[in-house]
Amino acid sequence: MSLLPSLLRAASFTSLLIAALPALSAGILEDRAIEDSIQNSFVFRELIADRSMVQVYVRRGSVELRGQVADERERSLVEDAISAIVGVGEVENRLFVDSAHRRSSDRWLVARVRSQLLTNRELNGSRLQFAVRAGELVLSGTVRDDAQRDFALTHARPLATNLQVRDEMTISATPHPEIAIDDPSVVAMVRSALGGLSTLKLGPAGLASQDGNVVLRGSAASPDEIAEAVRRAQAVRGVRSVANQLSPAR
Questions:
Q1: I need a surface site. Which of 77, 86, 125, 163 has the fewest CB within 10 A?
Q2: What is the pTM (predicted TM-score) of this model?
């Protein structure tokens, strides 16, 4: 039997494989870049209770999330941040919220308080630590001034269910440099901050950020709700400006 047909088929397959290698390599590099962006994002680095419990799988621009998170807010933050990364097509969010027992533990409480406080721009330049000791939520670290101290205490108390809040914060004459925050994390935190505005409707491209300059597009029922949406967006850490392109709904 002649070997020529087999050799021709093998040569043809090899040619096709060689031709496909650049596209395959590019796809692998793009997926790796997406995964790096996820792992290095402010949301993933700073706001997740336990990063080791979240698994990320990237394939051809599609992202699958598995594992568990502390609460629904955390679940949404992760998905929204990843969805805003350039090159990401689809996000399949299979994260589940941990049990009520775990969510009531000291560890999850600390994570929840930390996440809520670190998303607010009022604490820029601060470096806070959170812990539960002897039945108290302890806030330590450094803040810029008394206004930051009062802000941290005021916002921590409602989250510290059945716990006293203890102040061990000190004022630093030299504030810490502000942490650079990526745009996908800004988008996710702004979207979270806008939650609860019942008549606010953002379009398909209704929320975007470029170097912390946020654009809001869509509608709301009243000028008051539009003003509240802008105020909430401006209060998010990492936001430099807010371009208001919202209009009253008709």
A1: 86
A2: 0.82
Total residues found in the chain within this entry:
250
Q: For residue 188, which of 214, 165, 163, 149 has the smallest C-alpha distance?
A: 214
* Token representation of residue 164: 């006293």
The per-residue b/e assignment along 220-237, b for 16 or more CB within 10 angstroms, e otherwise, is beeeebbebbbebbbbbb
Alpha-carbon separation of residue 246 from 3, 16, 139, 202, 223 (angstroms) = 70, 51, 38, 8, 9
Name the burial class of residue 78, with classes exposed (0-12), middle (13-18) and buried (19+) by CB atoms within 10 angstroms of its CB.
buried
Burial string for 162-197 (b: 16+ CB within 10 Å, else e) reads: ebebbeebeebeebeeeeebbbbbbbbbbbbbbeeb
* Alpha carbon distance 82, 185 (integer Å): 8
Q: What is the pLDDT of residues 147-202, one digit of tens each?
A: 999 999 999 999 887 899 999 999 987 877 878 899 999 999 999 999 888 889 98
Strand order across the beta sheet in which 54-59 lies: 54-59, 62-69, 91-97
